[in-house]
Design brief:
Blueprint: H1 2-25, H2 27-32, H3 36-90, H4 95-137, E1 159-166, E2 177-184, H5 200-207, E3 215-220, E4 223-224, H6 230-235, H7 251-256, H8 264-273, H9 277-281
Helix pairs in contact: 1-3, 1-4, 3-4
Length: 295
Protein backbone atom coordinates (compact mmCIF):
# COMPACT_ATOMS: atom_id res chain seq x y z
CA UNK A 1 0.00 0.00 0.00
CA UNK A 2 2.80 2.41 0.88
CA UNK A 3 4.48 1.82 -2.49
CA UNK A 4 1.18 2.34 -4.31
CA UNK A 5 0.38 5.55 -2.46
CA UNK A 6 3.93 6.79 -3.00
CA UNK A 7 3.64 6.07 -6.72
CA UNK A 8 0.40 8.07 -6.95
CA UNK A 9 1.95 10.90 -4.93
CA UNK A 10 5.02 11.08 -7.17
CA UNK A 11 2.84 11.11 -10.30
CA UNK A 12 0.80 13.98 -8.90
CA UNK A 13 3.97 15.93 -8.10
CA UNK A 14 5.27 15.16 -11.60
CA UNK A 15 2.11 16.63 -13.16
CA UNK A 16 2.47 19.72 -11.01
CA UNK A 17 6.11 19.98 -12.09
CA UNK A 18 5.10 19.79 -15.76
CA UNK A 19 2.66 22.66 -15.22
CA UNK A 20 5.35 24.74 -13.52
CA UNK A 21 7.84 23.99 -16.30
CA UNK A 22 5.34 24.94 -19.00
CA UNK A 23 4.44 28.21 -17.31
CA UNK A 24 8.02 29.24 -16.56
CA UNK A 25 9.19 28.47 -20.10
CA UNK A 26 6.18 30.37 -21.57
CA UNK A 27 6.09 33.15 -18.99
CA UNK A 28 5.56 35.95 -21.50
CA UNK A 29 2.66 34.18 -23.18
CA UNK A 30 0.97 33.54 -19.84
CA UNK A 31 1.44 37.16 -18.79
CA UNK A 32 0.26 38.49 -22.17
CA UNK A 33 -3.07 36.66 -21.85
CA UNK A 34 -3.47 37.29 -18.12
CA UNK A 35 -3.35 33.59 -17.30
CA UNK A 36 -1.40 33.80 -14.04
CA UNK A 37 -4.35 33.05 -11.77
CA UNK A 38 -5.54 30.18 -13.94
CA UNK A 39 -2.10 28.60 -14.03
CA UNK A 40 -1.71 28.94 -10.25
CA UNK A 41 -5.05 27.16 -9.80
CA UNK A 42 -3.98 24.42 -12.21
CA UNK A 43 -0.72 23.95 -10.29
CA UNK A 44 -2.50 23.89 -6.92
CA UNK A 45 -5.02 21.36 -8.20
CA UNK A 46 -2.23 18.86 -8.87
CA UNK A 47 -0.70 19.59 -5.48
CA UNK A 48 -4.03 18.80 -3.82
CA UNK A 49 -3.96 15.32 -5.35
CA UNK A 50 -0.38 14.86 -4.13
CA UNK A 51 -1.44 16.02 -0.66
CA UNK A 52 -4.30 13.49 -0.54
CA UNK A 53 -2.07 10.58 -1.44
CA UNK A 54 0.57 11.84 0.97
CA UNK A 55 -1.97 11.91 3.81
CA UNK A 56 -3.08 8.36 3.03
CA UNK A 57 0.53 7.23 2.94
CA UNK A 58 1.15 9.01 6.25
CA UNK A 59 -1.81 7.21 7.86
CA UNK A 60 -0.49 3.82 6.75
CA UNK A 61 3.04 4.65 7.88
CA UNK A 62 1.75 5.97 11.22
CA UNK A 63 -0.24 2.80 11.81
CA UNK A 64 2.74 0.64 10.89
CA UNK A 65 5.13 2.65 13.10
CA UNK A 66 2.72 2.38 16.03
CA UNK A 67 2.44 -1.36 15.43
CA UNK A 68 6.23 -1.72 15.48
CA UNK A 69 6.59 0.21 18.73
CA UNK A 70 3.75 -1.83 20.24
CA UNK A 71 5.77 -4.96 19.46
CA UNK A 72 8.81 -3.38 21.07
CA UNK A 73 7.01 -2.65 24.34
CA UNK A 74 5.43 -6.11 24.31
CA UNK A 75 8.95 -7.52 24.00
CA UNK A 76 9.94 -5.49 27.09
CA UNK A 77 6.94 -6.78 29.02
CA UNK A 78 7.59 -10.37 27.95
CA UNK A 79 11.27 -10.10 28.93
CA UNK A 80 10.38 -8.71 32.38
CA UNK A 81 7.71 -11.30 33.07
CA UNK A 82 9.55 -14.36 31.80
CA UNK A 83 12.88 -13.27 33.35
CA UNK A 84 11.22 -12.78 36.75
CA UNK A 85 9.62 -16.19 36.44
CA UNK A 86 12.96 -17.87 35.72
CA UNK A 87 14.66 -16.14 38.67
CA UNK A 88 11.95 -16.31 41.34
CA UNK A 89 9.96 -19.46 40.56
CA UNK A 90 12.38 -21.81 38.86
CA UNK A 91 15.74 -20.42 39.95
CA UNK A 92 17.36 -21.37 36.64
CA UNK A 93 19.01 -17.97 36.07
CA UNK A 94 20.65 -15.37 38.22
CA UNK A 95 19.42 -11.77 38.19
CA UNK A 96 22.62 -10.74 36.35
CA UNK A 97 21.95 -13.20 33.51
CA UNK A 98 18.37 -11.99 33.19
CA UNK A 99 19.56 -8.37 33.00
CA UNK A 100 21.99 -9.29 30.22
CA UNK A 101 19.23 -10.99 28.24
CA UNK A 102 16.88 -8.06 28.89
CA UNK A 103 19.47 -5.56 27.64
CA UNK A 104 19.93 -7.69 24.50
CA UNK A 105 16.17 -7.60 23.93
CA UNK A 106 16.15 -3.82 24.38
CA UNK A 107 18.99 -3.29 21.89
CA UNK A 108 17.33 -5.57 19.33
CA UNK A 109 13.95 -3.89 19.78
CA UNK A 110 15.44 -0.39 19.48
CA UNK A 111 17.21 -1.33 16.26
CA UNK A 112 13.94 -2.69 14.91
CA UNK A 113 12.23 0.57 15.82
CA UNK A 114 14.97 2.66 14.24
CA UNK A 115 14.65 0.66 11.02
CA UNK A 116 10.95 1.42 10.61
CA UNK A 117 11.39 5.02 9.30
CA UNK A 118 13.62 3.64 6.55
CA UNK A 119 10.72 1.61 5.22
CA UNK A 120 9.13 4.81 3.88
CA UNK A 121 12.35 5.63 2.02
CA UNK A 122 12.42 2.10 0.60
CA UNK A 123 8.80 2.43 -0.53
CA UNK A 124 9.50 5.81 -2.17
CA UNK A 125 12.58 4.44 -3.92
CA UNK A 126 10.69 1.37 -5.07
CA UNK A 127 7.89 3.46 -6.57
CA UNK A 128 10.35 5.76 -8.35
CA UNK A 129 12.50 2.87 -9.56
CA UNK A 130 9.47 1.09 -11.03
CA UNK A 131 8.88 3.78 -13.67
CA UNK A 132 12.61 4.10 -14.35
CA UNK A 133 13.10 0.38 -14.96
CA UNK A 134 9.93 0.24 -17.06
CA UNK A 135 11.51 2.86 -19.31
CA UNK A 136 14.88 1.06 -19.36
CA UNK A 137 13.31 -2.34 -20.13
CA UNK A 138 10.97 -0.97 -22.80
CA UNK A 139 11.72 -2.31 -26.26
CA UNK A 140 11.23 0.49 -28.82
CA UNK A 141 9.38 -0.33 -32.02
CA UNK A 142 11.95 1.72 -33.95
CA UNK A 143 15.39 1.21 -32.39
CA UNK A 144 17.69 4.06 -33.45
CA UNK A 145 20.71 2.14 -32.11
CA UNK A 146 19.99 -0.99 -34.11
CA UNK A 147 22.60 -2.22 -36.58
CA UNK A 148 19.96 -4.10 -38.60
CA UNK A 149 19.09 -3.11 -42.15
CA UNK A 150 21.29 -2.54 -45.13
CA UNK A 151 23.05 0.53 -46.49
CA UNK A 152 22.84 1.52 -50.14
CA UNK A 153 26.13 1.90 -51.99
CA UNK A 154 24.71 4.75 -54.05
CA UNK A 155 21.70 6.92 -53.42
CA UNK A 156 19.86 9.20 -55.86
CA UNK A 157 17.29 10.47 -53.40
CA UNK A 158 13.93 9.68 -55.01
CA UNK A 159 11.34 9.53 -52.24
CA UNK A 160 7.91 8.04 -52.79
CA UNK A 161 4.85 7.57 -50.60
CA UNK A 162 2.82 4.49 -51.52
CA UNK A 163 -0.78 4.61 -50.21
CA UNK A 164 0.43 5.83 -46.82
CA UNK A 165 -2.09 5.99 -43.98
CA UNK A 166 -0.97 7.12 -40.56
CA UNK A 167 -2.31 8.05 -37.15
CA UNK A 168 -0.39 8.81 -33.98
CA UNK A 169 -0.37 6.04 -31.33
CA UNK A 170 -1.95 8.36 -28.77
CA UNK A 171 -4.84 9.25 -31.12
CA UNK A 172 -5.72 6.18 -33.17
CA UNK A 173 -9.14 7.56 -34.07
CA UNK A 174 -7.67 10.60 -35.90
CA UNK A 175 -6.11 9.87 -39.30
CA UNK A 176 -3.34 12.36 -40.04
CA UNK A 177 -2.54 10.92 -43.47
CA UNK A 178 -5.06 8.93 -45.48
CA UNK A 179 -3.94 6.98 -48.54
CA UNK A 180 -1.21 9.48 -49.44
CA UNK A 181 0.63 8.98 -52.74
CA UNK A 182 3.49 11.33 -53.57
CA UNK A 183 6.77 11.24 -55.51
CA UNK A 184 9.68 13.57 -54.76
CA UNK A 185 12.24 13.47 -57.56
CA UNK A 186 15.98 13.93 -56.92
CA UNK A 187 17.09 17.55 -57.25
CA UNK A 188 13.56 18.92 -57.14
CA UNK A 189 12.28 21.43 -54.62
CA UNK A 190 8.96 20.19 -53.28
CA UNK A 191 6.70 22.23 -50.99
CA UNK A 192 3.99 20.69 -48.85
CA UNK A 193 1.29 23.32 -48.31
CA UNK A 194 -1.72 23.05 -46.04
CA UNK A 195 -3.36 24.25 -42.82
CA UNK A 196 -2.09 23.34 -39.37
CA UNK A 197 -2.67 19.67 -38.63
CA UNK A 198 -2.81 18.67 -42.30
CA UNK A 199 0.16 16.31 -41.88
CA UNK A 200 3.05 18.27 -43.38
CA UNK A 201 5.41 17.70 -40.44
CA UNK A 202 4.12 14.14 -40.07
CA UNK A 203 5.13 13.31 -43.66
CA UNK A 204 8.65 14.56 -42.89
CA UNK A 205 8.79 12.49 -39.70
CA UNK A 206 7.84 9.38 -41.67
CA UNK A 207 10.75 10.03 -44.05
CA UNK A 208 13.07 10.35 -41.04
CA UNK A 209 11.42 7.22 -39.66
CA UNK A 210 10.43 8.65 -36.33
CA UNK A 211 7.24 6.66 -37.00
CA UNK A 212 6.28 3.87 -39.38
CA UNK A 213 3.16 4.12 -41.55
CA UNK A 214 0.10 2.26 -40.30
CA UNK A 215 -0.58 1.25 -43.92
CA UNK A 216 1.47 1.57 -47.08
CA UNK A 217 5.16 2.36 -47.22
CA UNK A 218 7.74 5.07 -47.85
CA UNK A 219 10.56 4.23 -50.23
CA UNK A 220 13.94 5.76 -51.09
CA UNK A 221 15.13 4.81 -54.57
CA UNK A 222 12.56 2.02 -54.54
CA UNK A 223 13.68 0.58 -51.19
CA UNK A 224 11.28 0.47 -48.25
CA UNK A 225 12.94 2.63 -45.60
CA UNK A 226 11.99 0.03 -42.96
CA UNK A 227 14.53 -2.30 -44.57
CA UNK A 228 17.33 0.27 -44.42
CA UNK A 229 19.71 0.84 -41.53
CA UNK A 230 18.08 3.64 -39.55
CA UNK A 231 21.32 5.40 -38.58
CA UNK A 232 22.52 5.36 -42.17
CA UNK A 233 19.15 6.67 -43.39
CA UNK A 234 19.18 9.64 -41.03
CA UNK A 235 22.78 10.41 -41.94
CA UNK A 236 21.60 11.03 -45.52
CA UNK A 237 19.05 13.64 -44.44
CA UNK A 238 19.74 17.30 -43.72
CA UNK A 239 16.98 19.13 -41.89
CA UNK A 240 16.15 22.56 -40.53
CA UNK A 241 13.37 22.43 -37.94
CA UNK A 242 10.61 25.02 -37.56
CA UNK A 243 12.16 26.06 -34.26
CA UNK A 244 15.94 25.62 -34.43
CA UNK A 245 17.61 24.45 -31.22
CA UNK A 246 21.03 25.54 -29.99
CA UNK A 247 22.96 23.32 -27.60
CA UNK A 248 25.25 24.61 -24.87
CA UNK A 249 28.45 24.50 -26.89
CA UNK A 250 30.19 26.60 -29.55
CA UNK A 251 28.45 27.88 -32.66
CA UNK A 252 30.79 25.71 -34.76
CA UNK A 253 29.83 22.56 -32.84
CA UNK A 254 26.14 23.39 -33.24
CA UNK A 255 26.58 23.65 -37.02
CA UNK A 256 28.68 20.46 -37.08
CA UNK A 257 25.99 18.55 -35.14
CA UNK A 258 24.96 15.49 -37.12
CA UNK A 259 28.13 15.42 -39.20
CA UNK A 260 31.11 14.95 -36.94
CA UNK A 261 33.63 14.78 -39.80
CA UNK A 262 32.75 18.28 -41.07
CA UNK A 263 35.79 20.53 -41.40
CA UNK A 264 35.93 24.20 -40.47
CA UNK A 265 35.69 25.07 -44.16
CA UNK A 266 32.48 23.02 -44.40
CA UNK A 267 31.06 24.85 -41.39
CA UNK A 268 31.86 28.29 -42.83
CA UNK A 269 30.37 27.33 -46.20
CA UNK A 270 27.19 26.05 -44.54
CA UNK A 271 26.86 29.29 -42.59
CA UNK A 272 27.27 31.35 -45.77
CA UNK A 273 24.61 29.32 -47.60
CA UNK A 274 22.24 29.81 -44.65
CA UNK A 275 22.93 33.59 -44.63
CA UNK A 276 24.27 33.26 -41.08
CA UNK A 277 27.93 34.11 -41.75
CA UNK A 278 27.76 37.85 -41.03
CA UNK A 279 26.00 37.76 -37.68
CA UNK A 280 28.18 34.82 -36.55
CA UNK A 281 31.28 36.87 -37.30
CA UNK A 282 29.81 39.73 -35.24
CA UNK A 283 29.81 37.54 -32.14
CA UNK A 284 32.72 38.06 -29.68
CA UNK A 285 34.55 34.87 -30.68
CA UNK A 286 32.86 34.14 -33.98
CA UNK A 287 32.34 30.44 -34.60
CA UNK A 288 33.93 29.64 -31.23
CA UNK A 289 31.46 31.72 -29.27
CA UNK A 290 30.16 29.58 -26.39
CA UNK A 291 26.39 29.46 -26.41
CA UNK A 292 24.47 28.64 -23.26
CA UNK A 293 20.77 28.26 -22.53
CA UNK A 294 20.61 31.45 -20.47
CA UNK A 295 21.45 33.65 -23.46
Amino acid sequence: SVSKFTDYELKAYAKAGVVADEVISSMRTVAAFGGEKREVERYEKNLVFAQRWGIRKGIVMGFFTGFVWCLIFLCYALAFWYGSTLVLDEGEYTPGTVIQIFLSVIVGALNLGNASPCLEAFATGRAAATSIFETIDRKPIIDCMSEDGYKLDRIKGEIEFHNVTFHYPSRPEVKILNDLNMVIKPGEMTALVGPSGAGKSTALQLIQRFYDPCEGMVTVDGHDIRSLNIQWLRDQIGIVEQEPVLFSTTIAENIRYGREDATMEDIVQAAKEANAYNFIMDLPQGYFFQWNLEQ
